[in-house]
User: Fold this.
Amino acid sequence: MTDLLLYNTLSRNKENFKPINPPNVGLYVCGPTVYGDPHLGHARPAITFDILFRYLKYSGYKVRYVRNITDVGHLENDADSGEDKIGKKARLEQLEPMEIVQYYTERYHESMRMLNVLSPSIEPRASGHIIEQIKLIEDILKNGFAYEVNGSVYFDVEKYNKKHHYGKLSGRVLEDLLANTRDLEGQDEKKNSFDFALWKKASPEHIMHWPSPWSEGFPGWHLECSAMSAKYLGDEFDIHGGGMDLQFPHHECEIAQSTAANGKESVHFWVHNNMITINGQKMGKSLGNFITLEEFFTGNHKLLTQAYSPMTVRFFILQAHYRSTVDFSNEALQSAEKGMQRLLAAVKTIEKIKASENSSVDIAGLEEKCRKAMNDDLNTPILMAHLFEGVRIINCISENKETIDKENLKKLKTLFNVYVFEILGLKEEKENSNNDTLVPGLVNMLLETRIKLKAMKDYQSADQIRDELQKIGFIIKDKKDGFDWEFSGK
Assistant:
Protein backbone atom coordinates (compact mmCIF):
# COMPACT_ATOMS: atom_id res chain seq x y z
CA MET A 1 0.00 0.00 0.00
CA THR A 2 1.01 3.60 -0.57
CA ASP A 3 2.21 5.90 2.22
CA LEU A 4 -0.51 8.47 1.45
CA LEU A 5 -0.93 11.14 4.13
CA LEU A 6 -4.18 13.13 4.28
CA TYR A 7 -4.92 16.31 6.19
CA ASN A 8 -7.58 15.48 8.76
CA THR A 9 -9.77 18.50 9.54
CA LEU A 10 -10.89 16.92 12.80
CA SER A 11 -7.37 16.77 14.27
CA ARG A 12 -6.12 20.03 12.80
CA ASN A 13 -4.82 21.26 16.18
CA LYS A 14 -2.53 18.27 16.82
CA GLU A 15 -1.78 15.45 14.37
CA ASN A 16 -2.86 17.19 11.18
CA PHE A 17 -1.65 14.53 8.76
CA LYS A 18 -2.35 10.84 9.15
CA PRO A 19 -1.77 7.79 6.94
CA ILE A 20 -4.51 5.75 5.34
CA ASN A 21 -3.82 2.17 6.45
CA PRO A 22 -6.67 -0.29 5.76
CA PRO A 23 -6.77 -2.20 2.44
CA ASN A 24 -10.53 -1.53 2.18
CA VAL A 25 -11.52 2.14 2.27
CA GLY A 26 -14.97 3.59 2.80
CA LEU A 27 -15.32 7.08 1.25
CA TYR A 28 -18.46 9.21 1.63
CA VAL A 29 -18.83 12.58 -0.10
CA CYS A 30 -21.71 15.03 0.12
CA GLY A 31 -23.17 15.33 -3.36
CA PRO A 32 -25.37 18.05 -4.88
CA THR A 33 -28.84 19.27 -4.01
CA VAL A 34 -30.43 18.84 -7.43
CA TYR A 35 -32.61 21.90 -7.99
CA GLY A 36 -30.50 23.84 -10.51
CA ASP A 37 -27.85 23.51 -13.17
CA PRO A 38 -24.43 22.31 -11.96
CA HIS A 39 -21.88 25.10 -11.59
CA LEU A 40 -18.16 25.52 -10.94
CA GLY A 41 -18.75 25.10 -7.21
CA HIS A 42 -20.11 21.61 -7.91
CA ALA A 43 -17.11 20.78 -10.06
CA ARG A 44 -14.48 21.35 -7.38
CA PRO A 45 -15.54 18.75 -4.78
CA ALA A 46 -16.40 16.30 -7.55
CA ILE A 47 -12.92 16.62 -9.07
CA THR A 48 -11.15 16.72 -5.69
CA PHE A 49 -12.65 13.45 -4.50
CA ASP A 50 -12.40 11.93 -7.96
CA ILE A 51 -8.62 12.40 -7.62
CA LEU A 52 -8.68 10.77 -4.17
CA PHE A 53 -10.83 7.89 -5.49
CA ARG A 54 -8.51 7.38 -8.48
CA TYR A 55 -5.32 7.52 -6.42
CA LEU A 56 -6.55 5.16 -3.73
CA LYS A 57 -7.57 2.62 -6.38
CA TYR A 58 -4.29 3.03 -8.25
CA SER A 59 -2.42 2.50 -4.97
CA GLY A 60 -4.08 -0.86 -4.41
CA TYR A 61 -6.94 -0.03 -2.06
CA LYS A 62 -10.40 -1.47 -2.55
CA VAL A 63 -12.63 1.61 -2.32
CA ARG A 64 -16.36 1.87 -1.80
CA TYR A 65 -17.16 5.44 -2.81
CA VAL A 66 -20.60 6.73 -1.82
CA ARG A 67 -21.76 10.13 -3.09
CA ASN A 68 -25.31 11.10 -2.25
CA ILE A 69 -27.98 13.07 -4.07
CA THR A 70 -29.99 15.45 -1.86
CA ASP A 71 -33.55 15.50 -3.14
CA VAL A 72 -35.53 16.35 0.01
CA GLY A 73 -35.20 18.22 3.30
CA HIS A 74 -32.75 20.95 2.24
CA LEU A 75 -34.67 24.11 3.11
CA GLU A 76 -33.99 27.66 2.00
CA ASN A 77 -30.95 29.35 3.59
CA ASP A 78 -29.87 25.99 5.08
CA ALA A 79 -32.35 26.59 7.90
CA ASP A 80 -35.01 24.54 9.71
CA SER A 81 -37.85 26.68 8.37
CA GLY A 82 -38.90 27.90 4.98
CA GLU A 83 -39.59 26.10 1.75
CA ASP A 84 -37.81 22.99 0.50
CA LYS A 85 -35.46 24.05 -2.31
CA ILE A 86 -36.67 21.32 -4.67
CA GLY A 87 -40.30 21.77 -3.63
CA LYS A 88 -40.06 25.49 -4.36
CA LYS A 89 -38.60 24.83 -7.82
CA ALA A 90 -41.37 22.31 -8.50
CA ARG A 91 -44.06 24.78 -7.43
CA LEU A 92 -42.67 27.60 -9.56
CA GLU A 93 -42.34 25.42 -12.65
CA GLN A 94 -45.58 23.51 -11.97
CA LEU A 95 -43.86 20.14 -12.02
CA GLU A 96 -43.66 17.14 -9.72
CA PRO A 97 -40.65 17.39 -7.36
CA MET A 98 -39.20 14.15 -8.74
CA GLU A 99 -39.36 15.63 -12.25
CA ILE A 100 -37.09 18.41 -11.01
CA VAL A 101 -34.83 15.86 -9.32
CA GLN A 102 -34.59 13.65 -12.39
CA TYR A 103 -33.90 16.55 -14.78
CA TYR A 104 -31.14 18.16 -12.72
CA THR A 105 -29.61 14.84 -11.66
CA GLU A 106 -29.18 13.98 -15.34
CA ARG A 107 -27.70 17.44 -15.97
CA TYR A 108 -25.26 16.87 -13.10
CA HIS A 109 -24.28 13.43 -14.39
CA GLU A 110 -23.68 14.77 -17.90
CA SER A 111 -21.44 17.55 -16.57
CA MET A 112 -19.49 15.04 -14.47
CA ARG A 113 -19.06 12.82 -17.53
CA MET A 114 -17.70 15.76 -19.53
CA LEU A 115 -15.28 16.57 -16.68
CA ASN A 116 -14.19 12.90 -16.72
CA VAL A 117 -15.28 12.40 -13.11
CA LEU A 118 -15.68 8.69 -12.36
CA SER A 119 -19.06 7.49 -11.14
CA PRO A 120 -19.17 6.59 -7.43
CA SER A 121 -19.67 3.01 -6.31
CA ILE A 122 -23.09 3.91 -4.89
CA GLU A 123 -25.17 7.07 -5.38
CA PRO A 124 -28.08 7.01 -2.91
CA ARG A 125 -30.90 9.56 -2.76
CA ALA A 126 -32.25 10.99 0.47
CA SER A 127 -35.86 10.32 -0.55
CA GLY A 128 -35.05 6.62 -0.97
CA HIS A 129 -33.83 6.26 2.62
CA ILE A 130 -36.66 7.66 4.73
CA ILE A 131 -36.97 4.41 6.73
CA GLU A 132 -33.27 4.53 7.68
CA GLN A 133 -33.59 8.17 8.74
CA ILE A 134 -36.63 7.46 10.90
CA LYS A 135 -34.75 4.59 12.59
CA LEU A 136 -31.79 6.90 13.28
CA ILE A 137 -34.09 9.49 14.90
CA GLU A 138 -35.63 6.78 17.09
CA ASP A 139 -32.15 5.77 18.30
CA ILE A 140 -31.24 9.38 19.11
CA LEU A 141 -34.50 9.89 21.00
CA LYS A 142 -33.99 6.62 22.90
CA ASN A 143 -30.54 7.80 24.01
CA GLY A 144 -31.98 11.09 25.27
CA PHE A 145 -30.38 13.56 22.83
CA ALA A 146 -33.52 14.74 21.03
CA TYR A 147 -37.02 15.97 21.88
CA GLU A 148 -40.38 16.13 20.12
CA VAL A 149 -42.49 19.28 19.85
CA ASN A 150 -45.80 19.43 17.95
CA GLY A 151 -44.87 16.58 15.61
CA SER A 152 -41.33 17.82 14.91
CA VAL A 153 -38.16 16.32 16.43
CA TYR A 154 -35.09 18.43 17.29
CA PHE A 155 -31.59 17.53 18.35
CA ASP A 156 -30.75 18.80 21.85
CA VAL A 157 -27.34 20.37 21.24
CA GLU A 158 -26.87 21.69 24.79
CA LYS A 159 -27.58 18.29 26.37
CA TYR A 160 -25.31 16.54 23.87
CA ASN A 161 -22.48 18.97 24.61
CA LYS A 162 -22.52 18.08 28.30
CA LYS A 163 -21.29 14.60 27.43
CA HIS A 164 -19.59 15.15 24.06
CA HIS A 165 -18.00 18.06 22.24
CA TYR A 166 -20.29 19.88 19.82
CA GLY A 167 -18.10 22.12 17.65
CA LYS A 168 -14.97 19.95 17.54
CA LEU A 169 -14.87 19.89 13.73
CA SER A 170 -15.53 23.55 12.99
CA GLY A 171 -13.90 25.01 16.10
CA ARG A 172 -17.18 26.51 17.32
CA VAL A 173 -17.64 26.97 21.07
CA LEU A 174 -21.14 26.21 22.33
CA GLU A 175 -20.86 28.78 25.13
CA ASP A 176 -20.41 31.48 22.50
CA LEU A 177 -23.44 30.20 20.59
CA LEU A 178 -25.43 30.23 23.82
CA ALA A 179 -24.38 33.80 24.61
CA ASN A 180 -25.20 35.04 21.14
CA THR A 181 -28.58 33.35 20.82
CA ARG A 182 -30.00 33.30 24.36
CA ASP A 183 -32.40 36.15 23.56
CA LEU A 184 -34.00 34.04 20.82
CA GLU A 185 -35.23 31.37 23.22
CA GLY A 186 -38.98 30.97 23.29
CA GLN A 187 -39.51 32.56 19.88
CA ASP A 188 -40.07 29.16 18.26
CA GLU A 189 -40.64 25.58 19.34
CA LYS A 190 -36.95 24.76 19.81
CA LYS A 191 -35.31 24.83 23.24
CA ASN A 192 -32.41 26.73 21.70
CA SER A 193 -32.16 28.33 18.30
CA PHE A 194 -29.04 26.30 17.47
CA ASP A 195 -30.89 23.00 17.98
CA PHE A 196 -31.46 21.46 14.57
CA ALA A 197 -34.33 19.53 13.07
CA LEU A 198 -34.20 15.76 12.75
CA TRP A 199 -37.82 15.59 11.55
CA LYS A 200 -40.17 18.41 10.58
CA LYS A 201 -43.95 18.23 10.59
CA ALA A 202 -45.10 19.21 7.12
CA SER A 203 -47.30 22.25 6.68
CA PRO A 204 -50.38 21.79 4.44
CA GLU A 205 -48.64 23.41 1.47
CA HIS A 206 -45.43 21.32 1.78
CA ILE A 207 -45.29 19.04 -1.26
CA MET A 208 -42.94 16.25 -0.10
CA HIS A 209 -43.86 14.41 3.11
CA TRP A 210 -43.93 10.90 4.59
CA PRO A 211 -45.64 9.19 7.56
CA SER A 212 -43.60 8.79 10.76
CA PRO A 213 -44.20 8.00 14.45
CA TRP A 214 -44.33 11.77 15.11
CA SER A 215 -46.19 13.32 12.18
CA GLU A 216 -46.65 13.42 8.46
CA GLY A 217 -43.45 15.22 7.62
CA PHE A 218 -39.93 15.06 6.22
CA PRO A 219 -36.37 14.53 7.51
CA GLY A 220 -33.93 17.33 8.33
CA TRP A 221 -31.15 18.02 5.82
CA HIS A 222 -28.31 16.93 8.13
CA LEU A 223 -29.85 13.54 8.84
CA GLU A 224 -29.58 12.01 5.37
CA CYS A 225 -25.79 11.70 5.25
CA SER A 226 -25.58 10.08 8.69
CA ALA A 227 -28.23 7.52 7.72
CA MET A 228 -26.92 6.71 4.24
CA SER A 229 -23.24 6.53 5.19
CA ALA A 230 -24.09 4.09 7.99
CA LYS A 231 -26.19 1.95 5.65
CA TYR A 232 -23.50 1.56 2.99
CA LEU A 233 -20.24 1.99 4.94
CA GLY A 234 -21.13 0.91 8.47
CA ASP A 235 -21.19 2.73 11.82
CA GLU A 236 -17.49 3.56 11.36
CA PHE A 237 -15.77 4.34 8.07
CA ASP A 238 -12.59 5.94 6.82
CA ILE A 239 -13.13 9.23 4.96
CA HIS A 240 -15.95 11.77 4.78
CA GLY A 241 -15.48 14.60 2.29
CA GLY A 242 -17.20 17.72 1.07
CA GLY A 243 -16.85 21.45 0.59
CA MET A 244 -15.42 23.60 3.37
CA ASP A 245 -18.73 25.45 3.59
CA LEU A 246 -20.31 22.22 4.91
CA GLN A 247 -18.10 22.01 8.02
CA PHE A 248 -20.68 24.00 9.96
CA PRO A 249 -23.43 23.25 10.49
CA HIS A 250 -23.86 20.22 8.21
CA HIS A 251 -20.87 18.05 9.12
CA GLU A 252 -20.84 19.22 12.72
CA CYS A 253 -24.43 18.00 13.00
CA GLU A 254 -23.53 14.71 11.33
CA ILE A 255 -20.90 14.03 14.01
CA ALA A 256 -23.41 14.81 16.75
CA GLN A 257 -26.15 12.63 15.23
CA SER A 258 -23.94 9.59 14.71
CA THR A 259 -22.36 9.88 18.16
CA ALA A 260 -25.75 10.35 19.82
CA ALA A 261 -27.16 7.28 18.08
CA ASN A 262 -24.19 4.91 18.33
CA GLY A 263 -22.13 6.23 21.25
CA LYS A 264 -19.11 6.77 19.01
CA GLU A 265 -18.01 8.91 16.09
CA SER A 266 -18.42 7.34 12.68
CA VAL A 267 -15.72 9.12 10.63
CA HIS A 268 -11.95 8.62 10.95
CA PHE A 269 -10.92 11.36 8.48
CA TRP A 270 -12.73 14.58 7.58
CA VAL A 271 -11.40 16.05 4.32
CA HIS A 272 -12.66 19.38 2.96
CA ASN A 273 -11.96 21.18 -0.30
CA ASN A 274 -11.83 24.97 -0.30
CA MET A 275 -14.06 27.34 -2.24
CA ILE A 276 -13.97 28.83 -5.73
CA THR A 277 -14.15 32.62 -5.74
CA ILE A 278 -14.57 35.36 -8.33
CA ASN A 279 -12.59 38.49 -7.62
CA GLY A 280 -12.18 37.31 -4.04
CA GLN A 281 -15.90 36.72 -3.45
CA LYS A 282 -17.55 33.33 -3.08
CA MET A 283 -19.45 32.36 -6.21
CA GLY A 284 -23.20 32.80 -5.70
CA LYS A 285 -26.43 33.69 -7.45
CA SER A 286 -27.16 36.62 -5.14
CA LEU A 287 -23.86 38.31 -6.12
CA GLY A 288 -24.48 37.93 -9.83
CA ASN A 289 -21.21 36.03 -10.28
CA PHE A 290 -22.77 32.60 -10.68
CA ILE A 291 -21.52 30.66 -13.72
CA THR A 292 -22.89 27.24 -14.65
CA LEU A 293 -20.69 24.55 -16.16
CA GLU A 294 -22.70 24.70 -19.38
CA GLU A 295 -21.93 28.42 -19.62
CA PHE A 296 -18.23 27.66 -19.19
CA PHE A 297 -18.38 25.04 -21.94
CA THR A 298 -20.26 27.33 -24.34
CA GLY A 299 -18.79 30.71 -23.32
CA ASN A 300 -22.33 32.07 -22.96
CA HIS A 301 -21.90 34.32 -19.91
CA LYS A 302 -21.10 38.00 -19.53
CA LEU A 303 -18.05 37.26 -17.33
CA LEU A 304 -16.51 34.90 -19.90
CA THR A 305 -14.42 36.06 -22.86
CA GLN A 306 -14.51 32.63 -24.54
CA ALA A 307 -15.69 29.05 -24.13
CA TYR A 308 -13.56 26.73 -21.99
CA SER A 309 -13.49 22.99 -22.54
CA PRO A 310 -14.28 20.56 -19.70
CA MET A 311 -10.63 19.47 -19.54
CA THR A 312 -9.49 23.09 -19.29
CA VAL A 313 -11.83 23.54 -16.31
CA ARG A 314 -10.51 20.33 -14.74
CA PHE A 315 -6.88 21.37 -15.29
CA PHE A 316 -7.64 24.84 -13.87
CA ILE A 317 -9.04 23.34 -10.65
CA LEU A 318 -6.15 20.89 -10.24
CA GLN A 319 -3.55 23.67 -10.51
CA ALA A 320 -4.40 24.63 -6.91
CA HIS A 321 -4.18 22.40 -3.85
CA TYR A 322 -7.65 21.21 -2.85
CA ARG A 323 -7.40 23.03 0.52
CA SER A 324 -6.57 26.36 -1.17
CA THR A 325 -9.08 28.78 -2.65
CA VAL A 326 -9.27 29.03 -6.43
CA ASP A 327 -10.02 32.49 -7.81
CA PHE A 328 -11.71 32.53 -11.20
CA SER A 329 -10.44 34.77 -13.98
CA ASN A 330 -10.39 34.48 -17.75
CA GLU A 331 -6.63 34.95 -17.66
CA ALA A 332 -6.19 32.00 -15.29
CA LEU A 333 -8.37 29.77 -17.43
CA GLN A 334 -6.57 30.78 -20.60
CA SER A 335 -3.26 29.99 -18.93
CA ALA A 336 -4.65 26.62 -17.84
CA GLU A 337 -5.74 25.94 -21.42
CA LYS A 338 -2.24 26.59 -22.75
CA GLY A 339 -0.63 24.55 -19.99
CA MET A 340 -2.87 21.58 -20.66
CA GLN A 341 -2.15 21.78 -24.40
CA ARG A 342 1.60 21.71 -23.67
CA LEU A 343 1.20 18.70 -21.41
CA LEU A 344 -0.91 16.71 -23.88
CA ALA A 345 1.38 17.69 -26.77
CA ALA A 346 4.30 16.23 -24.82
CA VAL A 347 2.40 12.96 -24.42
CA LYS A 348 2.09 12.74 -28.21
CA THR A 349 5.76 13.56 -28.62
CA ILE A 350 6.73 10.62 -26.39
CA GLU A 351 5.26 8.24 -28.97
CA LYS A 352 7.58 9.66 -31.63
CA ILE A 353 10.77 9.33 -29.57
CA LYS A 354 13.18 6.59 -30.54
CA ALA A 355 15.32 4.97 -27.87
CA SER A 356 19.10 5.39 -27.87
CA GLU A 357 21.78 3.00 -26.68
CA ASN A 358 22.32 5.00 -23.50
CA SER A 359 20.40 7.54 -21.43
CA SER A 360 21.30 10.96 -20.10
CA VAL A 361 18.04 11.20 -18.11
CA ASP A 362 16.86 9.27 -15.04
CA ILE A 363 13.10 8.78 -15.12
CA ALA A 364 13.01 6.82 -11.84
CA GLY A 365 13.88 9.99 -9.94
CA LEU A 366 11.08 11.90 -11.66
CA GLU A 367 8.59 9.14 -10.88
CA GLU A 368 9.59 9.23 -7.20
CA LYS A 369 8.94 12.99 -7.09
CA CYS A 370 5.47 12.50 -8.62
CA ARG A 371 4.61 9.75 -6.14
CA LYS A 372 5.75 11.86 -3.17
CA ALA A 373 3.64 14.80 -4.37
CA MET A 374 0.48 12.68 -4.44
CA ASN A 375 1.28 11.05 -1.10
CA ASP A 376 1.67 14.52 0.42
CA ASP A 377 -2.04 15.23 0.85
CA LEU A 378 -2.82 14.95 -2.89
CA ASN A 379 -0.55 17.84 -3.83
CA THR A 380 -1.64 18.17 -7.47
CA PRO A 381 0.08 21.54 -8.13
CA ILE A 382 3.45 20.05 -7.12
CA LEU A 383 2.68 16.97 -9.20
CA MET A 384 2.00 19.20 -12.20
CA ALA A 385 5.30 21.02 -11.67
CA HIS A 386 7.10 17.67 -11.82
CA LEU A 387 5.14 16.65 -14.92
CA PHE A 388 6.23 19.86 -16.65
CA GLU A 389 9.77 18.98 -15.68
CA GLY A 390 9.04 15.82 -17.64
CA VAL A 391 7.73 17.92 -20.54
CA ARG A 392 11.08 19.73 -20.64
CA ILE A 393 12.91 16.40 -20.71
CA ILE A 394 10.67 15.11 -23.51
CA ASN A 395 11.27 18.20 -25.62
CA CYS A 396 15.03 18.02 -25.04
CA ILE A 397 15.08 14.38 -26.14
CA SER A 398 12.96 15.23 -29.19
CA GLU A 399 15.42 17.98 -30.13
CA ASN A 400 18.40 15.64 -29.63
CA LYS A 401 19.66 17.62 -26.63
CA GLU A 402 19.24 14.58 -24.35
CA THR A 403 19.21 10.83 -24.91
CA ILE A 404 17.01 8.09 -23.45
CA ASP A 405 17.43 4.33 -23.55
CA LYS A 406 14.70 1.74 -24.03
CA GLU A 407 14.13 1.08 -20.32
CA ASN A 408 13.83 4.76 -19.37
CA LEU A 409 11.61 5.46 -22.39
CA LYS A 410 9.22 2.76 -21.20
CA LYS A 411 9.23 4.31 -17.69
CA LEU A 412 8.56 7.76 -19.17
CA LYS A 413 5.57 6.52 -21.17
CA THR A 414 4.17 4.73 -18.12
CA LEU A 415 4.70 7.75 -15.87
CA PHE A 416 2.76 10.12 -18.12
CA ASN A 417 0.01 7.59 -18.80
CA VAL A 418 -0.47 6.94 -15.08
CA TYR A 419 -0.26 10.49 -13.72
CA VAL A 420 -1.81 12.48 -16.59
CA PHE A 421 -4.63 10.14 -17.55
CA GLU A 422 -5.27 7.63 -14.75
CA ILE A 423 -4.73 9.88 -11.70
CA LEU A 424 -5.30 13.48 -12.84
CA GLY A 425 -8.06 12.22 -15.12
CA LEU A 426 -7.18 14.40 -18.10
CA LYS A 427 -8.03 13.23 -21.59
CA GLU A 428 -7.74 14.31 -25.20
CA GLU A 429 -10.67 16.41 -26.40
CA LYS A 430 -11.74 16.21 -30.01
CA GLU A 431 -14.07 18.50 -31.91
CA ASN A 432 -17.01 16.82 -33.61
CA SER A 433 -15.82 17.72 -37.06
CA ASN A 434 -14.22 16.20 -40.14
CA ASN A 435 -11.38 18.68 -39.48
CA ASP A 436 -10.05 16.16 -36.89
CA THR A 437 -8.61 14.11 -39.76
CA LEU A 438 -8.67 16.62 -42.62
CA VAL A 439 -6.45 19.33 -41.08
CA PRO A 440 -3.63 17.02 -39.87
CA GLY A 441 -3.60 15.36 -43.29
CA LEU A 442 -3.31 18.68 -45.11
CA VAL A 443 -0.58 19.95 -42.76
CA ASN A 444 1.44 16.76 -43.20
CA MET A 445 1.05 16.98 -46.97
CA LEU A 446 2.29 20.60 -47.00
CA LEU A 447 5.28 19.76 -44.80
CA GLU A 448 6.20 16.75 -46.93
CA THR A 449 6.04 19.04 -49.98
CA ARG A 450 8.29 21.45 -48.09
CA ILE A 451 10.89 18.68 -47.60
CA LYS A 452 10.83 17.96 -51.33
CA LEU A 453 11.25 21.67 -52.13
CA LYS A 454 14.27 21.87 -49.82
CA ALA A 455 15.77 18.81 -51.53
CA MET A 456 15.32 20.65 -54.83
CA LYS A 457 17.05 23.69 -53.22
CA ASP A 458 13.87 25.78 -53.61
CA TYR A 459 14.34 27.25 -50.16
CA GLN A 460 12.14 30.30 -50.84
CA SER A 461 9.03 28.18 -51.49
CA ALA A 462 9.86 25.88 -48.55
CA ASP A 463 10.18 28.85 -46.21
CA GLN A 464 6.93 30.31 -47.50
CA ILE A 465 5.03 27.13 -46.54
CA ARG A 466 6.59 27.23 -43.06
CA ASP A 467 5.87 30.96 -42.60
CA GLU A 468 2.23 30.70 -43.71
CA LEU A 469 1.57 27.78 -41.36
CA GLN A 470 3.17 29.67 -38.48
CA LYS A 471 0.98 32.70 -39.14
CA ILE A 472 -2.16 30.67 -38.43
CA GLY A 473 -0.76 29.07 -35.26
CA PHE A 474 1.21 25.99 -36.30
CA ILE A 475 4.60 25.39 -34.67
CA ILE A 476 6.98 23.57 -37.03
CA LYS A 477 9.96 21.59 -35.69
CA ASP A 478 12.52 20.32 -38.21
CA LYS A 479 14.24 17.06 -37.33
CA LYS A 480 16.96 14.94 -38.90
CA ASP A 481 14.46 12.33 -40.03
CA GLY A 482 11.51 14.59 -40.91
CA PHE A 483 9.41 17.03 -38.92
CA ASP A 484 7.06 17.51 -35.98
CA TRP A 485 4.30 20.06 -35.65
CA GLU A 486 1.67 21.18 -33.20
CA PHE A 487 -1.10 23.73 -33.17
CA SER A 488 -0.59 26.53 -30.63
CA GLY A 489 -4.26 27.55 -30.55
CA LYS A 490 -3.60 31.12 -31.71
About this structure: The chain has three domains: 5-273, 278-423, 435-487. Residues 435-487 form one domain. The radius of gyration is 27 Å. DSSP finds 16 helices and 15 strands in the chain.
